[in-house]
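batch_manifest entry 22 of 60
target: Magnesium-protoporphyrin IX monomethyl ester [oxidative] cyclase
source organism: Titanophycus setchellii
requested by: lab member K.T.
priority: normal
notes from requester: please return C-alpha cells only, no post-processing; we will run our own comparison against the previous entry in this batch. if the run fails, retry once and flag.
--- input ---
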Amino acid sequence: MQTTIKQEQSKVKETLLTPRFYTTDFEEMANLDISNNIHEFEAVLEEFRADYNRQHFIRDEEFNQSWDQLDHKTRSLFIEFLERSCTAEFSGFLLYKELSRRLEQTSPIIAECFLLMSRDEARHAGFLNKAMGDFNLALDLGFLTKSRKYTFFAPKFIFYATYLSEKIGYWRYITIYRHLEKHPEHRIYPIFRFFENWCQDENRHGDFFAALLKSQPQFLNTIESRLWCRFFLLSVFATMYLNDFQRNDFYNAIGLDARQYDIQVIRKTNESAARIFPIALDVDHPRFFQLLDECAQQNSCLINLEKTSKNNIIDKLAKIPLYIGLVVNFAQLYFMKPITAQNSNIVVK
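--- output ---
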C-alpha cells in the first residue's frame, strides 16, 4: 500500500529554510528588453531544444529490489532528501510553466526557454517521486499545487535567486556524483548514478538566467545591484549550510562530511557567480565559515527548543538570545568586505 504524503498529514512546518513556491510580476517580465543579448538566448534555446537528457531519466533493473536493508534512520533521512528535492524541482516546474504561458505572445524566445526548462524540472520531480514509490510513499503534487503558499518575488530577485539555485544545484549534484564514482560502496541507492547528466540540466538553466541578467545591466552594474547580489549569495549559501547541518547523518550514510561538502560547494558556486555578478563573497576570510558554524548551531538550538516547547513564556524567552545571535552573525557575514569579481583572484574553472 502506497502512502501519499500531504502537507497537513506530514505536519512539516514551513520555515525560511523550507523549499518554497514562487510567483512574480508577469507584466514586468513580458516587457523586458533582451535585444542586447539575443544571440546568447538563441544559443541557449538551441541547447534546450537538443534535449540531451531525453532518454536519461529511465529507471533500470537496479531499482527493482527491496530497500528494506537500509536502517531506519538512513531510510528516514533519505526519504526526507527525496521529498525536499522533489518539492524544489516541482516548484521550479510550476514557475517556469506559468512564465512560458504568460510570455508566449510578447517574448517567444524567452517563453520557449521557460517551457523547455519546465520540461526538465517535471522530469526531475517525476523521477524523484517514482524513487519515493520504492519506499511506499509518494508526494501528492496536485495537492502541493493548491495548498502551498506562494511567495512573491520581483523579476530581478527571481533572476538572482534562481541563477544561484541552479548553479549551486549543479555543484551539489556533481560533487556527490564524483564522490560516489570514487567510492561506489557508499552509493546506497541507484538514483545517484543519474546525477552527472542531471546536473547538466541545472547548469544549462543557470546559463539561461545568466543571459537574462546580462540582458538587464541595471541588475548588475549599480550600487544597489551589488548589495542585492551580496544578499542573495549569502542567503543561498546560508540556507544550504543550515539545512545540511541538520542532516549530517544523511551525508555520513553516503560517505561525506556535511560541513566539508558544503564548503566545497560554496567555494565552487562562488567561483561560478563571479562570472556574472559584480562581486563575490570572501569565503576565504578566516571568520566566514566560523560564523556560518555559529549560525548553524544557533538554528539547531532553535529547532530543538521548538520540538520540546510548551509555548510558555520561559520557552519564548529562551529563543530570544538565539534569534539575536543569528541576526548579529548574519549581519557580520553580510558586511564582510566582498571581492570585486572582475579584479579578484578567484579562479573560475
